[in-house]
Amino acid sequence: MTASSTVRRGRPAVAEDAAARAAHRWEERVQRGAHPLVYPAFRALARRGPVVRVPGLGVVVNDAATAREVLLDTEHFSKVGPGAPSDLWTPVLGPSVLLNMEGEDHATLRRALSGLFTPRSVAQLTATEAGASLGTLAPRLLAGETVDLVSEVGALAGTVICRMTGLPPTDAAVRDAMVAAQSVVGLVRLHRRRLTPTQVRYAREVLDRLSEPAREAYRDGDPSTVPGRMRGLGLSEREALGAVGAFVMTGTETIQSFTPRLVALATDTGWTDRLLRAEPSDPLRGRVVEEALRVTVPTPAMLRSVRSAHRVGAVPVRAGERVVIATVTCCRAGGPFAPDHDADPVLRNLWFGAGPHFCLGMPLAMAQVGAVLDALRPLAAAGRTLAVTDREVARGVLIPSYRRLEIEARPVDGEQPAARGTGEETA
Ligand code: HEM
């Protein structure tokens, strides 16, 4: 029996098919809003084979098993070198921000920072910040208010990352951090290997201004912050402030992209009620979140530079070539959103990468997603669920996202409104 022919909780198969198609169309709009040319190109390339060389772009990987092989093979593939993230980010952030490092230096810095990402640390940090910023979410919804989930999640992600990087978590600083992350990350285009000198100057100015207040955390050696821990390793103040920029960039937009898309997907496909009723430890909740990560793939691509002649799948590659892992294509090959189906083990967590650069922030990401779901749980206790009443996709961004996702509380068995919204009519 296929996902679409299963009848779940009394929803007829025809309605499920229509819901799955509507959810898919919205996800397509989100992807195309961010990447109107590259996303359709990725989809077309996927039909040409698991690994395809594209002049001017690189060797594109569309297959999960091959992607994993590349990510685990640090002898032949690197994040430092022509076409790799180091080309993009070292001129802006300096050489010591994990995502542009390899080998022993990378492992040492990762170890030093890992204490900030233990389940206990992230649970503490998230609980404190979520209590302050999400505490009113359910009461407002239950009182009949319409809430923009994108801005709510942005405030949480911004506050958490400000605390972690030693920035003052005031409303203004959080807003600055989100704007800085978006405007700098938004400069990246997959078909360009480097930022232009003007873009580098702009990005440095924005991130220098943002990071400046974290100087104190470095000077105090505060071990609850990224710069404090970097000082403990003997890294310079300049390097530590570069890392502040890197963490703001990696740790805000991804969460602000994913969490609203999770809620939208669950609502579009009739999963919200079950998701909100599930206890935090219920495997069903983990499964819905994981499946939404597989379908949304907040970081749609990963880059590597070829260190020495080798193969990517069956395609020979030369030193200095660029490998573009189309994570979004690899993960979406697993089919439409279907939390009640077993996940393919080859895809497991690929949306967070694999190997030595596996997302350091994953526990923090999961804690924040959990905090948002926890904040919405009182709706289930009150016999309510969520409806998406309006939405708008973000354009010209690197991380595909909704710009706005408005939600309201509804009776569980009430009719879902035909959600309004703006987006490309393509799928
Ligand atoms: C749903 C949310 C997130 C997704 C999907 C995601 C995805 C990823 C992926 C795919 C990589 C590996 C890139 C590669 O190998 O080229 C990565 C690395 C990284 N992520 Fe995340 N991320 C998320 C949230 C976060 C958060 C909240 C933080 C917090 C600071 C964070 C910090 C990092 C860092 C520092 C790295 C670099 C690790 C290294 O190079 O050793 N991420 N992320």
Short recap of the structure:
The protein has helices spanning 13-34, 38-46, 64-72, 85-93, 103-114, 119-134, 137-142, 149-165, 171-185, 197-211, 215-220, 226-232, 237-251, 253-268, 272-277, 283-296, 327-332, 362-381, and strands at residues 51-54, 58-61, 77-78, 147-148, 302-306, 310-312, 315-317, 322-325, 384-393, 402-411. With 427 residues, the protein is an alpha+beta fold.
Return residue spans where pLDDT drops below 50 for at least 5 consecutive residues: 1-11, 415-419, 423-427
Per DSSP, the total helix count is 18
Q: How big is the Rg?
A: 21 Å
- Number-wise, the strands total 10
| Corresponding CATH architecture | Orthogonal Bundle
User: Strand order across the biggest sheet?
Assistant: 1-2-8-5-3
What is the topology?
Blueprint: H1 13-34, H2 38-46, E1 51-54, E2 58-61, H3 64-72, E3 77-78, H4 85-93, H5 103-114, H6 119-134, H7 137-142, E4 147-148, H8 149-165, H9 171-185, H10 197-211, H11 215-220, H12 226-232, H13 237-251, H14 253-268, H15 272-277, H16 283-296, E5 302-306, E6 310-312, E7 315-317, E8 322-325, H17 327-332, H18 362-381, E9 384-393, E10 402-411
Parallel strand pairs: 2-8
Antiparallel strand pairs: 1-2, 3-5, 4-10, 5-8, 6-7, 9-10
Helix pairs in contact: 1-14, 6-8, 6-18, 8-9, 8-13, 8-14, 9-10, 9-13, 10-13, 12-13, 14-16, 14-18
Bound molecules: protoporphyrin IX containing FE.
Protoporphyrin IX containing FE binds next to helix 13, helix 14 and helix 18.
